[in-house]
Amino acid sequence: MARSDNGLNIGFCPRADGDNIELFTSTLTFHAYRLEDMMLKPMTSAKSQHGKTLELRPELSEFNILVTRLSPGEDEGVDAIDGPSVMIVTRGEGKMSAAGNSMELKEGWVFFVGHGVELSFHCEKEMEVFRAYAE
Question: Which residues is 127 bridged to in the sheet?
Answer without folding.
Answer: 70
